[in-house]
Design goal:
Distance between the termini: 39 Å
Shape: globular
Radius of gyration: 18 Å
Number of strands: 0
Low-confidence stretches: none
Order of helices and strands: HHHHHH
Strand content: under 5%
């Protein structure tokens, strides 16, 4: 059964829009870069012993900055709130998806209005 037949009307529209925005090579490359940083942090945490703390996880935050700071800042407003690993992971995933979508919209807009007028901005 095709995924489009299992989804409702609104979900089908959202799926189509996400596929349109994230289907360009630029947002996919960005998501791949964030995924590679995540795998690097996991491998570093699981298999490499350090005498002190490792900074491998910082790459995920740097790649998703500045939008990763919004959920973390909102969480710090809660009295007694501490940043957990799960919140950081959710913040990174949501930030990567938001920024990839913005990259997709930007690339498609520039490609449509750039020289040549096709989806990739080439003549």
């Amino acid at each position: 059964m095709d995924i489009r037949t299992r989804l409702g009307g609104a979900a089908h529209h959202l799926y189509g829009r996400a596929r349109h925005v994230l289907g360009h090579p630029v947002p996919l490359a960005y998501l791949g870069l964030v995924a590679a940083a995540f795998v690097f942090a996991l491998v570093d945490a699981a298999f490499v012993s350090h005498p002190d703390a490792s900074l491998a996880g910082v790459w995920m935050v740097l790649l998703t900055f500045p939008t990763v700071m919004l959920p973390l800042a909102a969480e710090s407003l809660v009295p007694g709130g501490e940043t957990s690993g799960a919140l950081l992971l959710v913040s990174v995933v949501l930030s990567a998806l938001v920024q990839a979508a913005l990259l997709g919209v930007l690339v498609r807009t520039l490609g449509r209005h750039g020289a040549g007028g096709n989806a990739y901005g080439r003549g």
